[in-house]
Each structure stands twice: as structure tokens, then as C-alpha cells.
Amino acid sequence: MRWGALLGRMNVGIAALLLLACQTGPEMLAAPVTGYNHTSAAINWFSVNGAGGGNVGPHQGGGSQVCCGVIPRHWTPGLRAIVEWERDPDPYSSSMWLEQPYSDAWTKRMEAKKRQYARHKVVVEIPRYDEPGSLKVHFLPCNEVRVSATGITPGYPGYPYNFPMSMPEPEVCPD
Q1: Quick one: CATH architecture of 28-150?
Q2: Which of 43, 57, 99, 132 could cross-link to 105 by cystine, CB 3.0-4.6 Å?
Q3: CB within 8 Å of 40: residues ≥ 6 apart
């Protein structure tokens, strides 16, 4: 056999191995974390499976991403996420205070306000995705949360949750 033919076969073999390597890739992928707050409360901070998210104002979201959570390349049934967050039920109250900002009186009042913050933790299912994307966390009234990990953006066909940004909040939440 000639050297040229042998080298040609080796190049085909190497190309096949490279193609196979590109298809298998890692099983877990880094995923930016984005929050969507559909309530009138502020989300001071949140995390998904320990990966931090930023703060999200009332009826806001989607604008900023924090890196990074981890998701499987391929969705599997029963895929879940642990979401933790801190909620400020009255985010604009300090703008009405008469105390000089950062004075002793203001600081004391802020400490009392922070005692009204509520911390929550839930486990939620992540719906099926064909193409992985960022971790998108939706904060809903009554401390409900939904998480998606699809490459589809909210508002587009195929996205699993298309909630309005401003959702009505009931007087009493169901148990």
C-alpha cells in the first residue's frame, strides 16, 4: 500500500473520530440564570440549585442573566430544580420615609423592614426541552414558582410558560 493512500485513510478515520467527539460532548451544560417576577413584591435574591440569580423588581425580568447554573444536555422525566428566594412584600415603602437616608433612624427602620422579608424554598419540575438554554425562573403570586431550561424565549411559540408580567394577586392564597 502506498503512503498516500494510508495517510488518506488515516485522515478519514481522524475526521470520523472528531465528528463523533463533537456529537457526544459533555452531559451537563452551563446555563445562565434569569428571573421573571410577575408579582408586586421585589425578589431581593434567588438561586436555582445553588446558582445565584440577581434581584428582580416588581413586574420585571428577563433583562439580566447571572452565570451559571447547570442543566443536563438532554431532558429526562422527573427533572427538578430547587429554588430559594427572598421576597420584599413592600419594595417601595422606604421611598416614603422622612428619615435622612443612612442616618441612625433610617438604619433602624430598615432593620425593622428587613424582618418583614420572607424567605422561601420550593422544588419544582422542569418541563421537557429539546434544545437546552438558560434557566428561566418565574415568580408568581402566592409564592408559586416555575422554571424552564429551554432555548426558547418567553413569549415565543413553544415556550412552556407565557404568564403576563403583571398578574393579579389574590387576597388570600390557597394552601
Answers
A1: Sandwich (2.60)
A2: 99
A3: 58, 59, 169
Location of C-alpha cell 432555548: 151
Calculate the alpha carbon distances from 91 to 59, 100, 145 in Å.
12, 18, 19
Nearest residue to 139 (alpha-carbon basis) of 112, 118, 110, 109 = 118
Per residue in 11-41, pLDDT tens?
444 443 333 344 455 799 999 999 999 999 9
Query: What does the block give as the cell for 76?
Result: 429526562
Strands (E), 15-169: 28-37, 42-48, 51-53, 61-72, 80-88, 118-125, 132-140, 144-150
**DSSP assignment of 3-34:** HHHHHHHHHHHHHHHHHHHHHH--SEEEEEEE
Distance CA 102, CA 109 (A): 10
* Overall pTM surpassing 0.70 (yes/no): yes
